Amino acid sequence: MQSSDSGLCISDLDYTGIQHITPHIPQINDSIRTRCHDQLPYCGFPRKSWYLPAPEVYPKAPLKFQLLSRQETEWGTIKMTFEVKGPSHMSLYLRPHAGTSLSSWSFGDGTLQFNRSREYVIFYSRGLDAPAWTFWFDIQPPKSSDVSPDEGLISLAITAHYFFGSDGRSEPLESFLKRFPAWVFPSSWISTYHMYRY
């Protein structure tokens, strides 16, 4: 465990930003404007957001994430297989470390595509009753002796989004939403972010 915190993450979706809300909720002025941590998947946080510390949430159906197997292949890559049990909507972020690269995976047709941050993003959604999500990827270890093995091969983050049901609400979130003026249409849910290094 490197760090743990919890709070209300506020993203402005209106083109005017958040300026018309802060007179009604001055507490937002004291919030922290989040910064991107380039070395972490998904910047370690949603970009361009404000963050107000709040009590931790405890979903009745918390995310369960585990590495099922890690094996060296005959062609020199390392194949890692994972299993995830979580809500109907999750996002997976894969960020290979310096000197490493993904060579194949079990998603879609197997074609690897990364975003501008040079990380791979998978959006997962399912119906209400579905088996555990299992996936794998092959990663090519660094060839250079300059790269420390202590840093690991890849950082992996997974976000669980609870859009409905009791897991999608909390008392601090409900109290905060009541403070918005009647002309605001907030969209809210509970989300958790877990980051791992392998």
UniProtKB/TrEMBL annotation:
InterPro entries the UniProt entry points to: ERMP1-like_C
Protein name: Endoplasmic reticulum metallopeptidase 1
Family that this chain belongs to: Belongs to the peptidase M28 family.
Sequence ranges assigned to domain Endoplasmic reticulum metallopeptidase 1-like C-terminal in this UniProt record: 2-196
Top-level division of the source organism's lineage: Eukaryota
